[in-house]
Amino acid sequence: MSVSSTHAPCEELLLTRETPVQRRRVRAAWLFLTPMLLCLALVAAWPLLRTFWFSLTDANLADTGGGTFIGFSNYLFHNGSSWSGILVDPQWWNAVRNTLHFTVVSVGLEVVLGLLVALLLNIKFTGRSLVRALILIPWAIPTIVSAKIWSWMLNDQFGIINHLMLSLGLIDAPLAWTADADLSMWAVIIVDVWKTVPFVTLLMLAALQMLPNDCYEAARVDGIHPLKVFWRVTLPLLMPALLVAAIFRILDSLRVFDVIYVLTSNSSSTMSMSVYARQHLVEFQDVGYGSAASTLLFLVVAVIALLYLYLGRRQLEVRS
Amino acid sequence: MIKLKLDNVNKQLGGARILRDVSLEIAAGEFVVFVGPSGCGKSTLLRLIAGLDSICGGDLLIDGRRVNDLEPRERGVGMVFQSYALYPHMSVYDNISFGLKLAKTEKTSLRERVLKTAQILQLDKLLQRKPKELSGGQRQRVAMGRAMAREPDILLFDEPLSNLDASLRVQMRNEIARLHDRLGSTMIYVTHDQVEAMTLADKIVVLNGGRVEQVGSPRELYERPASRFVAGFLGSPRMNFLPVRLQTPGETSLVNTLVWGITSLPFDSSNLAAGTQLTLGIRPEHVSLKAAEGTAGVVVTAVEYLGSETYVHLDTRLDEPLICRCEVSAGWQAGDRVELLLDIDNLHLFDADGAALSRHPHAIETLPDGVPLRSARASAL
């Protein structure tokens, strides 16, 4: 009894008391972290807080400092008879819908195609390293450039895509890829998938090369069908990398701007949250309103990212 | 009954010849161990048998059927990998049953099979665990269970114990031996550990540079090595080798031991020329010592105490010391002068290419009486 009673405080003491070595380590850790924290504060926290502040004012682009504080009126405002503000703007909700639509379809396609290409490139064949390098080209071209290239290829009169499809007899008349409301979202998705599949492929390929080779040999000796091996061994083992690739792509897609703006400008059928924010900030010169849209965009991205990370981690925990 | 036959099997990999004309017969139920230094081709040979690598030349027959071009699953083999190769995300049960599901075995019998296998390997309490929650020995058992559960005719082991610590290795070695007795299946086992080879094997295949050096029971290989390589590879501390020159060839050979003068040895050297360089081999346990008087004999340079025995190093005025395995009670110390007694029954003589000279059956009687003898048939050098 006496042993245990003296034991507990002793342990507590050991846990709480910092030795000089520990103190030195903590100091060193802070020393190394400080530049990074300063950087983050400068390039992330400050713009974010400033944008949030603008969103509470009626500042305009000509004179950003001249705005007055108007509270949350940019978000939601009741003037006695009707509601106004972003949260009741059908254009905003249209942009949210477009962005989600774009994100789900393009990320879905990118992950599936990226995985398929990675599986192909994981097979040994002559010239594999050359193909691996070549496949990165779409990812290496700046989006503005590649979107412009595609915009010409998709041009309804002079575009090569229409020309090819016409001569193959797939269509009777040229399609207005970027102007047609039903087609433009697909055009945007095709271009984005073309550009970012290499990125997913690269991540998947790295993960594939980490997989234990001997497991596949064991499966071969045991005569397990390759498809079963894929579903039961490869895919579960790739899941962590797949989730990482997907979250990267989801976050990028939720903020999508350049590909949509270059291909379809401000068309409402493809307008994303970022395009909406830019329109208000730059074209309508309404910095307050645009900042409010940006802040909401940030919130949507943050909520989805946190939810995804939480669910992803829980799923991984269940699996392991 | 011949279960597996290798007929002049060759394997080339990017210009390098990994295996050269390997021919071998393995009987049903036999425990065969492939042993050799790293890079000798033993693992490659096992992978060829499993079907994980393809054969470049020669034939591989299982039950009399040529299986060169068959997929691993069609060969009826199971394999235990050095790294265990367990599926990291699956439980022990799933790891064992994964390969079974395909066989369209009924659900109940599948479960029974897994449970039976688990029971044999004492895994029944671990079935729901993931590989990372198991110790090295347990993982090893799961790997064996997975290979066994399909009840293959031939079980292949690729250095299965090399990732375990020493005591666990001894324990698992015994378990594998028991398993072989119990299952009675043909087992082929690759190792670089000569103790595993000696203790487990019915038949040892010593490989060197892609060639089979010698095939035989552990005892045959240890007592009558066919080559200097086999003689030096098996046994620890390894066999002592002394350069000697052939003085007079014949059914018994008169050799000049360079160190101790000329002596007659019971080996047939009729087809060799006088003056040929030979190597005399003697295992440390076949050398005995007695105290020398005055300045006679050789000097003890070092004594290694191992508890159960001591290794006495002797200065033979050659590059390497001669090592002698002695009882602790003999109490030899560095600086002592000793005379050597070599057991003539256990001497080995190798030609310049390392091949063992054949022992002359009647030579022993014709030996001249040596001076101090260890036994009736021992000679002092």
What does this structure look like?
Chain A: Pfam families: BPD_transp_1. Chain A: Keywords: Cell membrane, Membrane, Transmembrane, Transmembrane helix, Transport. Chain A: It is a multi-pass membrane protein. Chain A: Its main location: membrane. Chain A: Residues 96-308 form the ABC transmembrane type-1 domain. The complex is a heterodimer of chains A (320) and B (381). Chain A is mostly helical and 320 residues long. Chain A has a domain at 91-285: Orthogonal Bundle (MetI-like fold). In chain A, 72% of the residues lie in helices and 1% in strands. Chain A is built from 13 helices and two strands, in the order H-H-E-E-H-H-H-H-H-H-H-H-H-H-H. Chain A has helices at 2-16, 20-55, 90-121, 128-134, 137-140, 143-153, 160-167, 181-210, 213-221, 226-254, 258-264, 273-283, 287-319, and strands spanning 77-78, 83-84. Chain B has 381 residues and is α+β, with helices and mostly antiparallel strands. Chain B is built from nine helices and 21 strands. Chain B has a six-stranded mixed beta sheet with strand order 6-7-8-3-9-10, with helices on both faces. In chain B, strands 15, 16, 17, 18, 19 and 21 form a six-stranded antiparallel beta sheet that branches. Chain B has a five-stranded antiparallel beta sheet with strand order 13-12-11-14-20. Classes of the chains: A mainly alpha (320), B alpha+beta (381). Chain A binds chain B through residues 212, 214-215, 217-225, 228, 232-233, 236-237, 319-320, and chain B through 50-52, 71-74, 77-79, 81, 83-90, 98-99, 102, 130, 146-147, 150.
